[in-house]
Amino acid sequence: MDIVSLVASNPLVTQNATVQELLANPTLAVIAVIVVIALLIKIAFYTIKRIVLNVAVGYLFYLGVNHFSHTAVDMSFLSWLLTAPLGPLPVIVTWLQHNF
Predict the structure, then answer these.
(1) What is the pLDDT along the chain (100 residues), one digit of tens a residue?
(2) What pLDDT score does 29 carry?
(3) Contact 63/55 with Cβ under 8 angstroms?
(4) Cβ proximity of 62 and 92 under 8 Å
(5) Are 88 and 53 in contact, with CB atoms under 8 Å apart?
(6) CB 90 within 8 A of CB 82
(7) Would you tell me how many other CB atoms lie within 10 Å of the CB of residue 35?
(8) Which pLDDT value is given to residue 69?
(9) How many CB atoms within 10 Å of residue 67?
């Protein structure tokens, strides 16, 4: 018996079951909850990883601008907050404002 015939023989599939009817089955409800939790953890981990990476790259650019180009870049708190979603762009913009 292949998977297509197995799914087609399921009475919930042949009746065009709604989501409520599918989740009334405890096994399917547990599987759905596990899938949703796994997706939420994956999305949260990716978001946190991306923010940490952006802040780290922004700080490296800040160190590079201050130490290698010998420009005293004074960044505000808002500029540092903007490094989380934008990465090194606020540091570059601040450096350009101080130089030009």
Answers:
(1) 566 666 666 665 556 666 667 667 778 788 888 988 999 999 999 999 999 999 999 999 999 888 888 878 888 888 889 999 999 999 989 888 887 7
(2) 80
(3) no
(4) no
(5) no
(6) yes
(7) 10
(8) 81
(9) 9
Could you tell me if 94 and 64 are in contact, meaning their C-beta atoms sit under 8 angstroms apart?
no
DSSP letters along 13-55, please?
HHTT--HHHHHTSHHHHHHHHHHHHHHHHHHHHHHHHHHHHHH
HSE of 18, CA atoms in CB hemisphere, 13 A: 2
Tokens 């952006």 sit on residue: 54
- Contact (CB, 8 A) for 73 and 98: yes
Q: What share of the chain is helix, strand, coil (3-state, %, to 5)?
A: 80, 0, 20
